[in-house]
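I have been asked to look over a protein record a colleague put together. Thanks in advance; the entry in question is below.
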Amino acid sequence: MFFYPHVGELGSAYLQVMLVAGIGLILPFVVNRSSTVHRVALFVVSIVLALRYAFWRITDTLAPVGLTIDFAASGALLLLEMVALVGSLSAFVIMMRVRDRSPEADEHAAWWGEHEPRVAILIATYNEELDVLARTIIGAKSLRHVNKEVLVLDDGRRDWLRDYCAAQAVRYMRRPDNKGSKAGNINHALARLAEDEVVPDFVAVLDADFVPHRGFISRTLALFHDPEVGLVQTPQHFFNADPIQHNLGVARSYPDEQRFFFDHMQASRDAWGIAFCCGTSSVCRWTALQDLGGLPTESVTEDFMLTLALQNIGWRSVYLAEPLTEGLAPEGLKEYVTQRARWCLGLMQIARSSMGPFARNNLRLRDRWSVIDSVFYWMTTFPFRVAAIVFPLLYWFFNITVVDARLPDVITYFGTFYLWIIVVLNLLSRGMVVPILNDVSQLIGAIPISRAAFTGLLRPHGHPFSVTAKGGDRSRIVVQWRMMAPFAIMLTLTLVGLCLGIVSDRFSYNDAGDGKWVVLFWTGYNAVVLAVTVIACVELPRRERHIADAPERALFESEDGAHEVWLTSLTADTARVRGRRYPPTTRGVLEIAEVGAVESYVISETRDGARVQLLPNEAQREALFVKFYAEGAEPGVANVRLSAMMSDLARRLSFSSR
């Protein structure tokens, strides 16, 4: 380590961390996020610091070699950490490049000339409610692309949905069984489409809860100007908060958990030519699907496998990082964890399939690397997150040395590496990496995801397909006791161990390097992460909410005359108006842009206006759906608003009313 004699070892360690922090303050003014040269330089430094840290961990932090519990525990933690570090190094290499295809889409807009390509829009559904399906169907019908056909693929075989589709003039399909789950449902539709007199040129796929923006088709089709492109994937955005955002009260200041992947990692993967299909919000060339013979069914994540299967026969997949669809994020923690465990299981199935990285196929080396990178993510990130919580307890309760390290060395090797990674990732992702919240989002599903990773790799088939539930009653507080229990137990043990270690040497000693000093901070950090995780397991009530980026003008006409008001909140059934107060039960008509004159009455008076109950007719309700979901920019929060996030978290953790 670097040593500055006039400040001592500990001071020298702190100076190195301060140096990294100082460089981090300068980097935003000199780094071009889209420059490959700049990104390579940042991640080369990251890799050097990571290898430096790994060398130190391997050579200088293990318990003394021998047939002891200390050495076994210390070695097990090191092994988990080093495997996780390999996954991180792979991610660093991927993020060295980034690609933005929006200029390409601009350049090749309407490349097909006067005759629009025919597009089949497939909406696969199983058990979703009408409220969920209606907005997707209406959004698909409202696409600006004229030469299209909307098809609803009903694996639930519901007569009421068949009747609704007839009323909406969209095509309805059902099949006699559910073989192959979602992939089988889509393959059945493709076979039926192949029988039509005029087959589509392209096929768009939407989940039952994803509404396309009106330019979804035209923007994605622009990238098919390249005859080698078989599939175009777009990001998934969400018009509601995911469970962690919602339960921690940070939905307006902290992005949803998938933003980093869709806004940054996929764009970097695309630069390497390894962006992959994520199912919904994608468009595929008809001839590519016919060459392939339909979607593969060897994995429950048929979307990722579709990318590999297409590449295997010579078709490329590309990524357009534009907000062209928005959907419903899992609203409950059970659904949230089930979804991610299914993704993990599916990836393990792919690794063991004919498209696996070591199978005999025509995949490029980079495609095999892509699969291996994903396997490392699922198999190392989540088990290591659990290990990071459990291993300090071995020290506090059993005096088992897990890290034999001196405090100055920990700061020098780990502190500089960790701070540099946080600086670089936040610089390139515009502040999306928040340590404690990132840990919570990984920890909350770590146990079932880890189980899915290892069972899927050892026994890839024979697992039931779990559909992510949508909609349902979210009007009351629900405590997920079974999910909370392991975290509450670990939090209790962590706090007890921390107290014992502080007040007594009965259960822990100073024989692991700087002993308590090293593990103390680690344990304190774990206590905070676990406490926030426990709070996140308390699911708060939800209500539908659509808030415009800026208030808009509206006209409210009642018996007192017509008056302009500000429309500041709007849902399918209610609105909040400001600028003029109205007594309850006042009836009138609210003129809303792009919707029309909607019959209304005042529910309650507010300090500066009123809350209004809307009574839209069917056409107006459809117009509201289009206004909410198919128009405008991306929903939700794109970047962390640090001060607002801290305020939101403080309010939630203090249990004060919002």
